[in-house]
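Preliminary data (for renewal application), zinc ion complex.
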Amino acid sequence: MKHYPDPILKLIHSLSTLPGIGKKTAERLAMHLLHAPDRDAAELAANIIDLKKKIRLCSNCFALSDHDTCRICSDPSRDPSIICVVENPADMAAIEKANAFNGTYHILGGVLSPIDGIGPGDIRLSELFKRAASGQIREIILATKTNVEGEATAAYILDRLNTSGIRITRIASGIPMGG
Ligand code: ZN
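Predicted structure:
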């Protein structure tokens, strides 16, 4: 592969750092981009730069967003008094795909895992409890995964909010829910 000019070698190297892309695939993609219209290659490059520049976390629910408040939190047709607690943006996307939930989310950014040294201060629990204490929340749905860490995290939240007067329900992550 070392017979390629430097710009191609550098692109192959960058592409091969992506998950699931080996050296061979990276070489094929680089050749594809070399022969693609300038406009397409420029668009790909611009999209990558935009991604890093514009995507941040919603200040309310910590979903990925290109604004201070995400699309769901700023949608007046969603019910802000219902919070569905999930581990990560992918879990939220799975529930959104089912198109049956009309509340808002809280993305923890992980789960409690003493074995990995991940405690309550390492995920966005204080932010959740702050939202819960606002007086605006009617129901919290715990949609962490059903593995040990997910259950421990749900149990921790339930314990902390037990006397809050908020209705707490538990569902397995990814299961579509109605209203
Ligand atoms: Zn949000």
